[in-house]
Amino acid sequence: MFRSKIGRTKLILIILAAAVVLITGSTLVYLNGIGAVDSKNEETVTVEIPSGSGASAIIDILDENGLIKSPTFAKIHARIGGYDTLQANSYMFSKSMTLPEMMDAINTGDFQYISKDRIIIREGLTIPEVAAAIAEEMPFTAEEIIAKWADTTYLRQLIDQYWFLSDSILADGVMYPLEGYLYPETYFITEENPSIESITETMLDMTATELESRREAIDESGFTVHELLTLTSIVEREGSNVKDEMPAIAGVFINRLNEGMNLGSDVTVGYALQKTSLQFTQSELDVDSPYNTRRNAGLPIGPICCVNGEAIDSVLNYEESDYLYFFATENGEIIYSRTNEEHEKAVSENIWY
What is the mean pLDDT of residues 243-259? Predict the structure, then answer.
């Protein structure tokens, strides 16, 4: 009787061990079957998932594109994976991705895997440069884009649509109405046939988000949005190579505004002339333009470039001082002065252009 019990126990243990081996082996085979086709191949493949595609149909599409290791195990995974929000789109996958990674991306519409055009707009760019950056990636010319951005009927529609746009952008003498209002960012365009209008509004939506988060501070600043972006754009161009100095530079300009002095910013002269170099003849410095702050007191008629949140914050939270002048040396150091005599001395001792 005792030996019989021992025999039955051994048999049970053997059966259990066999079951564990079988389950473990099956699991390993299954996991291998839904693994990456080639873990070292990161070359992307664009996969189009049509609207209404179910999990099984998606497996067939992925298989046709060489992204499935085992169609049998892939179909099993698709049935048990709980993928109930599969989203149609163009996706970019690679053979180094596992099936669960790809299915999760399709189920969530993961933005990083969606096939898209990328437009990079850097802070400090002017409208012609922004238009050129868009034209490089989109099926429009820069001239077509700028023409749309000069269309008064369209601009009035935008003024009605966005709280921060006003008739200031339509004032006589404004060179480019949307200058300073198109937020610098990397934009991923996922529309199949994007329009100039849709791209413009995507950029303005970003501007709206950035300004809305600072709306209370803007109201307390005493500046209108147009004035704030105008001053910020000057600070952006003046401090492009010395970002940490932007609050101090903003403080100098605000001191000059409060004193009724001309801002005397060469970057505004450059914008008036549509010239990138800051080396000017005397006649250029005297150019008759509402952007020329060497010739005219107060702020120019509008922004001179696009600005990001950091630059806006540098004006909203400017550094208080009694400085009225600053000069940038060749190595990027900023020398601040209280009087014109101090400033002239700093310039004469450090002139480099």
Answer: 97
